Amino acid sequence: MDEAVRIAFEAGLPYTALRDFRPDERLWGRIAPEWAVRERVVPLLVVGDRLQLAATRPDPDLSALHGDWAGVDVVIAPAGEIDAALAQVAAAPTREDRAPVTDPGDPHRLGDLLVAHGATTDDAVAQALGEQERTGGLIGDVLLSRGAVGEDRLRSVLAEQLGLPVIDLGGYEADPAAVALVPELLQRRLRCVPIAVDDAAVFLAVADPLDDDALTALRTALGGLQPRCFLAGRHDVDELLQDLHQETWTAAALGTLRDRFPGETCATPVRPALVLAGILVLAAAIAGLAVAPATAGLVLVALTAAACAAPALLALPLAVAAAGPRRAPVRAAGGDELPLTTLLMPLGRGAGASVRAAGTLAALDHPQARLEVLLLCPAHDVAGLRAARELTRRAPHRLVAVPSPAAASRAAMLDYGLLLARGEQIAVLDPGDVPAPGLLRTADAALRAAGRRTAVAQAALAPPPGGGAVAAWLAAEAAAWHDLLSPGLARLGLPVPLATVGLVARRAALEEIGGWDPASAAAGTDLGLRLHKSGLRATTIDAAVGVSGVTGARGWLSVHAVWWRGTLQAFKVQLRHPWRTVRRLGPGGTLAAVVLGLATIAAPLVWLPVLVLTVLGALQGLQVVDGLLPVTLARIAGGEVVVVCLVTMVLGVAGGLRRRSGAAARAALLAPVALTAGAIAAWVGIAGVVAGLGRGAAAEAG
């Protein structure tokens, strides 16, 4: 994790980047430059009557700071960017040294008009033009994202420039006849609402002026009618669209995958033949133990060795494939236009999620004009909605009230957000996450470099430091997976089970495969397998996302039980049509899927019996007990335990050292304890599966 991100994460302060920093002359006129250089601080802006100050450490000396501010809020920024900003201030030309970039006396361009109307300043337009040159986007969006112009003023000036009327949608009800003329998908994509119709035209409220391609698509859909556009507030258009189509959107979020690919969703019942096969295998094992216990026990222990030791040994080549010299993080070229990225952020219950979301968004180093933030909040969470609305008032983010049926699972909320996303790329973060500097830029560059068939870039997840033995083991577990095993799978072109956070995906690819599975409790694992079956690939990036960790043993068990149950669901889907799955995954993908299934599903279930056999074998070897087990059986079980523990320790230590985390490396030595706890979690997951089947049977009987 980047040093500045780590400092911010540990201090509980927001993180920011100064990549697009432009000094505010008026603010710097109230700051002593020598003090700023000495303390390595940069004043950013004034919010209300509080000064926001970027610093390299959480406790700069503020005693020399003079001003009439009510308080100072410190945010952490990288030391190199602080120094570059200070140097930029020292070398910045004065307003008199720079030629104006606008001509308010003869206004033709949007910047000219805005300055002529007093909506912004020439300095603000100059800074916005510089950002637009580096990152792309429309100048109005850049000015809006920088807070240099208000949305109402921008809309009125745009309307004047384009000759469009403005409409206030407050309390407005759209004409159903007009709504029926424009396909819902077109309304959603163009962010427009048909409000009225006559014999010659359909009148539409649009959130943004439509380009020629959009107008052509509308004319095609309307037949002989002409579209007539009115500019309206973005929030008002979104609210009206939500009122008109929330039932349709809810059905799509819950049913797109099921309707398009019924064999690929966990919601489809397991085939009776698969259930029968499982019953027959269990019956054969019980019969064998009853008839020839020694032989059957030997066979079963040998099979458990295949389930546990084989995946452990095969994990070593994956780690070797990923453990070469660290690649320099891929960065987008300075002149490349950044794509619009939609960030989906599911909010939890209550107002606290919005507070954490504000910290995550403040830490996100990305030009705001190239970022669309969708805050996904359950519609029944009144307190959460109220807090999220406050957050959207301070920044151009979009609050989406997700109807209760679609808010039943995290995956369903993400699918609901995917329907409304306008960005070429989709990113997912949780409230409270701390993204690495340049996360979205790095992911974009990695996707460009890998080619169109690479659909997802997955960042490494980094639990927070501290929190005791459980948190330390979680850090070791995350380091082994995200720094060794997952990159190894990606480099070999094999299926990569994904996380449901810290990923950046091509929107077109997600739509191609039906998005996330709302019925899956491990939607990331399921998504990774379905991507590979569709001929798409995932890659990993050397950028970390700090995530909230589980600090208690009970919470750790609960999380792993749910994850195990979801992984079982995902692999049951693959067994629904086994030969079709083999053809779509290919030989290498099939082998990887089998090994992953053994390691994540079968191994935890058989670990406890094997551990018991190992202990009994050790007692027998010490002559504490006699004649309990055949010697061969005890040796196989003991060898299996030794191999699995050693490999798990090696992977955890290597991952911890790769992250330069001594605590994680030391915690990896607790592998036997952690493996046993994981096995208990798997059996808790089994109990959840059985309880779910019981509830389903009771519901059918009722």
From TrEMBL:
Residues 12-92, 162-245 form the Type II secretion system protein GspE N-terminal domain. This is Glycosyltransferase. One of its GO terms (molecular function) is transferase activity. SUPFAM superfamilies: EspE N-terminal domain-like, Nucleotide-diphospho-sugar transferases. It comes from the Bacteria. It comes from Baekduia soli. The chain crosses the membrane at residues 273-292, 298-321, 590-616, 636-657, 669-693. Keywords: Membrane, Transferase, Transmembrane, Transmembrane helix. InterPro entries: Glyco_trans_2-like, Nucleotide-diphossugar_trans, T2SS_E_N_sf, T2SS_GspE_N.
